[in-house]
Amino acid sequence: MAKKHKHFETSVIHEGYDSKDMLGSLATPLFQTSTYTFETAEQGERRFAGEEEGYIYSRLGNPTVSVLEERIAALESGERGLAFGSGMAAVSAILIALTKANDHVLCSSGLYGCTFGLLAMMEEKFNISHDFSAMETKEEIRALIKPETTCIYVETPINPTMKLIDLEMVAEVAHEKGIPVVVDNTFSSPYLQRPLELGCDVVLHSATKYIGGHGDVVAGLAVGKKDFLDKVAMTTLKDIGGIMSPLDAWLLLRGLKTLPIRIDRHCDNAEKIFGKLRNHPKVARVFYPNDESHPDFPIRQKQMKRGGGLISFEIDGTKQDAQRMLNNLKFLKIAVSLGDAETLIQHPSTMTHAVVPEESRLEMGITDQLIRLSAGLEAWEDIWEDLEQALNNL
Ligand SMILES: *Cc1c(COP(=O)(O)O)cnc(C)c1O
């Protein structure tokens, strides 16, 4: 699918929709329907045979959802987009589409907790094994690729330590062996990082986060080559059934329009808070990939427009001190998830990463003193005032 608009800021608003097709409606109409009527039995036959374009049933396609799929494909510079009922529905549909029993998946060390859980289930049920790699060098990745490796699965920035992986480098090694690279781009959004432009093959999102941006939708998206996503649409999406509802697609189209403005503000706020946190005596370490002090800063400069809205930091103290810091907050919200207008703060070792065995968790750098903050859109001075008093009162 050819992109119609040159600039991202225009594409987020216009791509995939023409009001002329919809009675002039400026906003994309919400097609809240489960099924579509055929004019004749023969038309139904042609639709099912794929000889005539048109909608059949909303699990197979819906006009509101289709606009979102075209828009995200344009934003990620891919051929086709596909919408799912959650980020995990996207992750599972893509991973299942790329593997069969006894295959192997090579992953970045540091994965979203439920992706970790999914891989464990795939191993138990289908003997699909996996290995983790820091993916710092080509040699390290080559050494872990097996004859049965059918997928390389990467998250960058890695939650919650904000380690970065050089996507261009990973794609080059993977393609020596013809292995596709899948990237979970949730933390960056396509405004900051576009893995397909760096040579990766499939990009996916928990649209629940920055793409929705308003904390009111759980949804997932994937973008890649048309042939591959056509296959996913007709197999692991259609038959497992984790589809997106038309209302959620409508809300995401609305959220997307302000994505560049929101992300710039999330980044501005994160940069300011990072500067304050690193100088606070109760803070032992701060993880934010936008500064010379971060070992992956050169990768950030190479592949991300800005540093993003997430910061993690370690309290100089104990697990109880970290929990007390959260309890001391006056208006900032204690919650998992990220990318919302509200600043959200959470304790990974007892919340998002509680399911990860302690040993793996510590290997991933997730100590009991670690706190993750998703910078919201509030005035940064107010965010800092609340954080500062919570730290000072430890
Ligand atoms: C939230 C998240 C997911 C899962 O998405 P859901 O929409 O909650 O199913 C996957 N990957 C990352 C990086 C996430 O932050």
TrEMBL record:
Task: Tell whether RNA-binding is among the UniProt keywords.
Answer: no
| UniProtKB keywords | Lyase, Pyridoxal phosphate
What are the recorded GO MF terms, alphabetically? homocysteine desulfhydrase activity; methionine gamma-lyase activity; pyridoxal phosphate binding
> Which residues, renumbered to this chain, carry the PTM N6-(pyridoxal phosphate)lysine?
209
Indicate whether Protein transport appears among the record's keywords: no
- In short, the EC number is 4.4.1.11, 4.4.1.2
Cellular component terms (Gene Ontology): cytoplasm
The entry's protein name is: L-methionine gamma-lyase
Origin organism lineage: Bacteria, Bacillati, Bacillota, Bacilli, Bacillales
